[in-house]
């Protein structure tokens, strides 16, 4: 859909950015942990869970914006089927 773009409130956009930077930090930490044979498995699992949580929250934020700004107005634009298929394609990887 070439005309579509990311509609995020500036506060939401900043929160998403902050969460992704946090996830990036956790991922970098996990990579370092994997180089140390003394690291406890549960500590790695906790870091992985933190990354998953951050990514899930950002995904929820973007999905909410998409539903509000694109899906809810699809009928008015006449592209309901395209929007539904696009969203189904994106969600099948969850």
Structural commentary:
By secondary structure, this protein is mostly helical. Helix content is 77%, strand content 0%. The protein is built from four helices and no strands. Helix 1 (10-34) packs antiparallel against helix 2. It is elongated and about 60 Å long. The two termini are 21 Å apart.
Which helices and strands appear, and what pairs or packs with what?
Blueprint: H1 10-34, H2 41-71, H3 74-77, H4 80-91
Q: Can you tag this structure with a few keywords?
A:
mainly alpha, 4 helices, 77% helix, single chain, 94 residues, elongated
What is the arithmetic mean of pLDDT? 89
The share of residues in extended strands comes to: under 5%
Tally of strands: 0
Radius of gyration from the alpha-carbon trace, in angstroms: 18 Å
What distance lies between the first and last C-alpha atoms, to the nearest angstrom? 21 Å
- Shape category: elongated
Order of helices and strands: HHHH
Compact summary:
The protein is an all-alpha fold.
């Amino acid at each position: 859909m070439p005309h579509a773009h990311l509609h995020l409130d500036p506060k939401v956009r900043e929160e998403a950015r902050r969460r992704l930077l946090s996830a990036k930090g956790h991922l970098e930490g996990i990579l370092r942990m994997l180089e140390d044979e003394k690291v406890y498995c549960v500590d790695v699992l906790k870091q992985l869970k933190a990354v998953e949580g951050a990514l899930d929250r950002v995904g929820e934020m973007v999905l909410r914006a998409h539903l509000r700004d694109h899906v809810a107005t699809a009928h008015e634009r006449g592209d309901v089927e395209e929007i539904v298929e696009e969203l189904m394609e994106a969600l099948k990887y969850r």
